[in-house]
Amino acid sequence: MGLAVAARLMVQRRFAPLMAAQALGAFNDNLFRFALVNLATFQGLTVFGLERELMVPIAATALTLPIFLFSSVAGQVADKYDRVFIMRRTKLIEILLMIAAAIGFFLNSGLLLVIVLFFMGMQSAFFAPARNSALPTLLEGKELVTGNALVSGSLNVAILAGAALAVVFVVREDAAFILSATLVGVAVIGWLIMCLNKPAPADSPDLKISWNIIAQTGKVLGFAFRAPDVLRPLLGAAWFWMLAASVLTLMPLFTAAVLGGDETVGLALTALFTVGAAIGAIMCGVFTRGQDALIFTVIGAFGLVIFPSFVALTTLGWPEPDPDSLTSADVFLADPGNWPILAALALSAVSAGLFVVPLQAMAQRRAKPEVRGRILAAGGIMNAATASLGQFTLFAIALLALPLQAAFGYIAVVSGFAGLFALWRMMRPGRYTE
């Protein structure tokens, strides 16, 4: 049933343009961000002469800060105006931003590129609640899990493609031209595709929008906290984003200090995690039946107990590798002794994909239509907050003098509690069927 629903949605105007446009937007976000980070790390691009070690957190903050600042306003906009109309306008703004980014690349201006990155974060802050609140309008209840699975799967693939091409493009002599042409071209294509989507009318057209960011952020979070049946899946999804940020932050150092691999191994493991999460999401969409999808969250949660625990316990006694003789990806992948670790990391990612998709659909389905945009915007705020916390994983491990494997143990423990809670909710009499 899920496979048939997925095949049908991927060719229909009420969904396919939205999925494609958001994937192209995610590709552009990550191509631009990773190009900026690589130029700062390897080619001396800077802002006000700052060291390269500071450029990475500056880039990360420039992208996530607008989500904190503008999600509350974006949620109101998503409740007042047609959601597809909002997405078309944000895609049009993306074209203008990519033209500005092209100027920044040709001028080699770190300041202009960071400013553009900030406005890209703002554009994403308005696109996300419009997209999330549009899905329950455009899709039937039994299609929500499959639709979210397709969105999540395509998003992960787009993120990986953007990050990988950034590494390839920045080392070319014509890096400024190829980056600019790709970013502007993809933005134009994304806007044209989004123009094909059917409308998704808002449920509160008379809402008066307030631009008091601080007050509205508190109010938007209040909507979520006063709807505990929506808050629970939002918190579960926020845990997923914290997990993803923790793993992606941890992976380079874990690769070198524990697995003895160089940067090519780190890139391979990052790709493995991203593709695995996409596979988990798509599996959830293919195998779900109607609204009965919470079981996939339970399976995913316990997968996140078993496989990260295996990684932690297996590598805990490994000897410390020589930092001057790290293994390349081809040698690392060819060694059968490393395959169990690779399999566990891949299955951890698949479990993460299974875990999050039903929660996204559950929050969309349960949120009241007249406040859906604002409640889902609260989810965006929580996702950004937890992802930011996840980036401090290495700092916390160093502060507590713990081995790197402690991060995987932490993931297993919290996921175990999440799985037990989801299982309890699923088995309660009179529960929701999702």
What's a quick, concise take on this entry?
By secondary structure, this protein is mostly helical. Helices cover 78% and strands 0% of the residues. It is globular.
How would you explain this protein's 3D organization?
- The chain is mainly alpha-helical and 434 residues long.
- It is 78% helix and 0% strand.
- It is built from 16 helices and no strands.
- The longest helix is centred in the middle third of the chain and has 32 residues, at 228-259.
- The relative contact order is 0.15.
Averaging pLDDT over every residue, what do you get? 86
Class inferred from helices and paired strands: mainly alpha
CATH topology of the largest domain: Growth Hormone, Chain: A
Report the biggest beta sheet as strand number plus sense, adding barrel if it closes.
none
What is the tally of helical segments?
16
Oligomer: single chain
CATH hierarchy, class of the largest domain: Mainly Alpha
Name the overall outline: globular
Q: So, the CATH homologous superfamily of the largest domain?
A: MFS general substrate transporter like domains
Low-confidence stretches: none
Question: Number of folding domains?
Answer: 2
Share of β-strand residues? under 5%
Tally of DSSP β-strands: 0
Proportion of helical residues: over 70%
Rg over CA atoms, rounded to whole Å, is 21 Å
Reported CATH architecture of the largest domain: Up-down Bundle
Helix-strand string: HHHHHHHHHHHHHHHH
Please specify the SSE layout and strand pairing:
Elements: H1 2-9, H2 16-42, H3 52-80, H4 83-107, H5 110-138, H6 144-170, H7 175-194, H8 213-225, H9 228-259, H10 263-287, H11 294-315, H12 329-334, H13 339-366, H14 372-390, H15 393-399, H16 405-427
